[in-house]
Design brief:
seven-stranded mixed sheet; two-stranded antiparallel ribbon; 7 helices
């Protein structure tokens, strides 16, 4: 779990003017400046690893594309995409809270932000509206190991023939690597408090193909040891937010963090494969 904003409680939907509506919801991480900095660092680590924002399987040649970023967090993915595509592209970010998003006057002119609860019906004006829907790191909001309710609403956003790109992490296939002779015991204990047994990811290709999509493909990406410490620091940063917001055991958490960070300095790292699905709406 790396973390972006979650969509667990009711949120208001605002219109295309992009007025920021604050909502009350339960979110396992923070929304302060440290959290926003983590989201930004996380974005560029993902971009460095993948080598793209939109997978090459997703058609982007048209100049009038309509693109949605669901669980947009602080909007960094959408803002980065806006730098590389024509201004005629219509870009929309959705999240249950826009507390981390820039004020409207500071966003690129073709970016519009909206509050939306992913478990609710999409706003009418966006039904079958988008050519591309992107979503990243919403594992924490998948309920009962079943992504189908989320898939049904994401599907409603897309035009027939539109593409979904869904990015997640493989917390079951993760591991701790160490320099020979060094321990990663505390780092493993720390990360174990974040990761779940999200077995739905191993079935997501088939689930997509049985819920309105065709030709779904999964791509797996793994970072090497040259960036492993950067990723590990990101995960520890995520865990710190989780520990403060959810665990609420400050003394034990500080001790575990101190020991885990000492292990990273000695040569221990969290290795987590990244998963990218690309699917086309029928």
């Amino acid at each position: 779990m790396e973390g972006t904003d979650s969509h667990t409680d009711n949120g208001n939907v605002n219109g295309q003017n992009g007025n920021h509506v604050k909502t009350s919801n339960q979110y396992a991480l923070m929304r302060d400046c440290d959290a926003s900095s983590r989201l930004t660092a996380q974005h560029y680590l993902w971009k460095n690893l993948l080598g793209f924002l939109l997978h090459p399987d997703v058609p982007t040649a048209r100049g009038d594309l309509k693109v949605a970023d669901v669980a947009t967090g602080n909007g960094i993915w959408l803002q980065d995409l806006a730098e590389d595509i024509p201004m005629s592209t219509d870009l929309h970010g959705f999240d249950i809270s826009l507390d981390q998003v820039d004020p409207r006057p500071w966003l690129q002119a073709n970016i519009h932000m909206h509050t939306w609860n992913i478990f609710e019906e999409p706003p009418t004006q966006f039904l079958s509206y988008f050519d591309i829907v992107h979503v990243r790191l919403i594992t924490v909001v998948v309920q009962n190991n079943d992504p189908v309710p989320i898939i049904k609403n994401l599907t409603k956003l897309l035009k027939p023939g539109g593409h979904l790109q869904w990015d997640e992490v493989d917390t079951i296939g993760c591991s701790i690597k160490t320099v020979p002779g060094n321990s990663g015991e505390n780092l493993d204990a720390l990360f174990s408090q974040l990761k779940g047994r999200d077995t739905w990811k191993y079935e997501l290709t088939s689930i997509l193909n049985h819920n309105g999509f065709s030709g779904s493909l999964l791509y797996t990406y793994e970072y090497g040891l040259t960036t492993a410490r950067l990723w590990s620091h990101l995960y520890v940063s995520t865990w710190k937010e989780f520990a403060e917001k959810v665990l609420k055991t400050p003394e034990a958490s500080r001790e575990l963090e101190s020991k885990a960070m000492q292990e990273t300095m000695n040569g221990a790292a969290i290795m987590v494969p990244k998963l990218v699905w690309v699917a086309r709406k029928m």
